[in-house]
Amino acid sequence: MRKLTKSSTDKSLMGVCGGIAEFFGISSFVVRLLFFLTFTVSLWVYFILNIILVEKRSR
């Protein structure tokens, strides 16, 4: 079972977009671009996810 987590390797700010990209298997650039294009709404979503998501443990 996969779990949505912050990325520990693909970080620009907090690792939220990198974690979403890893979860869905897409480029983190695409996720960041979508967050940028929907900035007014996604800013709130980003901060909420930053609080909720935990850091991915390195193995």
Task: Jot down its keywords.
mainly alpha; single chain; 3 helices; 59 residues
Write the layout of secondary structure elements.
Elements: H1 16-24, H2 28-37, H3 39-52
**Percentage of residues assigned to helices:** 55-70%
Tell me the overall shape.
Answer: globular
Secondary structure category? mainly alpha
Secondary-structure element string: HHH
Question: How many domain units?
Answer: 1
**Main sheet record:** none
- End-to-end distance, in Å? 17 Å
**Low-confidence spans:** none
Overall pLDDT score: 89
The number of distinct helices, counting runs of at least 4 residues, comes to 3
Task: Tell me the radius of gyration.
Answer: 11 Å
Number of strands: 0
| Fraction in beta strands | under 5%
Write structural notes for this entry.
By secondary structure, the chain is mainly alpha-helical. The protein has one domain (1-59). Helices cover 56% and strands 0% of the residues. It contains 3 helices and no strands. It has helices at residues 16-24, 28-37, 39-52. The longest helix is centred in the C-terminal third of the chain and has 14 residues, at 39-52. The protein is globular.
